[in-house]
Design brief:
The chain is about 55% helix and about 10% strand. By secondary structure, the protein is an alpha/beta fold. It has two domains: about 120 residues, Rossmann fold (3-Layer(aba) Sandwich), CATH 3.40.50.2300; about 180 residues, Hypothetical protein af1432. Strand 1, helix 1 and strand 2 form a beta-alpha-beta unit. It starts with a strand and ends in an 11-residue tail after the last helix. The C terminus is likely disordered.
């Protein structure tokens, strides 16, 4: 694993030397002796963490921090202020500028190491979540690359699924996880031939057999990760076409044997699919979409989820309005 880089900024050489002796055995260190040097070094090296003196002759630490946070190239760098005891009354200004912590001079080696280690752990966790989000966008887009869905569909549907999960009592953390997992529900379509995915007319029985394989293909792709996010996405990919009465695929599961996440996504997915414009159809009116959900109660959908979805319909329509600007072309229920 690459060693994390830390930018240390102080106009006093003795302070730089003290921090160098504490940290040099574990991290790659970069040094600057002024605010302007710090900004240039941050732009050039993109350190994971910045230890920043508050009192400096050209730009003080607060001004440096504000400039870093205003620059998209450096806004993600975590800043810890190094400050003297007589300067500790201004913590609020530092946090308002964007710092994550303070260390008081004269520094303690044990405290410096602990604070640096803890904040670098947070940096790594943030980086990992960004990687997950990037993967979600790529897998979600890949699943619909060759079909006729617009890219907006998967993100809007995921927002509906999150709202429904919250309504039926899911914890916030699990709702957020569902919103990230749901866009990958059709990842397996990447393994379906274009001739099937893009066929303008009805599919033959043989073509339907091919199309139904996308649930297992998606599961096999997503299940290769042990991360909870991708494990949830794998289950949704496999089960979102199962039906409450057992008439779905790939395994004909029924009732509570279908994971609740997949049952939620099924409602959200059908609602959005009927609501959106496709090359072969106009968006259905709201009343007709709601009637379709009612007709699916007890056979396609769990009745309880249909009831809750109707309860939060005003919120669903707000979500729909929020996405209107991103729709290509715009096609929203009236």
């Amino acid at each position: 694993m690459a060693t994390a880089s830390i930018l240390i900024v102080d106009d006093e050489s003795t302070n730089l030397l003290a921090l160098k002796q504490i940290l040099e055995s574990e991290y790659r260190l970069i040094f600057a002796k002024s605010g302007l040097e710090a900004l240039a070094a941050a732009e050039k090296h993109k350190p994971a963490l910045l230890l920043l003196d508050v009192q400096m002759p050209d730009l003080d630490g607060y001004a440096v921090c504000r400039r870093l946070k205003a620059n998209p190239d450096t806004e993600g760098i975590s800043v810890i202020f190094i400050t003297g005891l007589n300067e500790t009354g201004n913590e609020a200004e530092g946090f308002a500028a964007g710092c994550v912590d303070y260390i008081v001079k004269p520094v303690s080696a044990a405290i410096v190491r602990a604070r640096v280690r803890n904040h670098l752990s947070l940096v790594r966790a943030t980086s990992l979540m960004k990687s997950h989000r990037d993967a979600i966008h790529m897998l979600g887009a890949a699943g619909h690359y060759n079909d006729t869905d617009t890219g907006v569909h998967i993100w809007r549907m995921a927002a509906y699924a999150k709202a429904l999960a919250k309504e039926v009592g899911w914890e916030d953390e699990q709702c957020n996880l569902l919103e990230l997992a749901a866009p990958m529900h059709d990842t397996g379509k990447i393994g379906i031939p274009d001739s099937v995915l893009r066929k303008p007319g009805p599919l033959t029985n043989e073509e339907w057999k091919v199309m139904r394989q996308h649930t297992r293909i998606g599961y096999e792709i997503l299940n290769k990760s042990d991360a909870p996010l991708f494990q949830l996405a794998a289950v949704i990919a496999l089960r979102h076409h199962e039906k409450w009465d057992g008439g779905g695929y790939p395994d004909g599961l029924a009732g509570d044997a279908i994971p609740e996440a997949a049952r939620i996504v099924a409602v959200a997915d059908v609602f959005d699919s009927l609501s959106m414009k496709r090359p072969y159809k106009e968006p259905w009116p709201l009343e007709q979409v709601v009637d379709a959900l009612e007709q699916g109660r007890g056979n396609h959908f769990e009745p309880r989820l249909v009831d809750h979805f109707k309860t939060i319909l005003p919120e669903i329509l707000q979500i729909q309005t929020h996405w209107r600007q991103s729709e290509q072309p715009a096609a929203i229920i009236h």
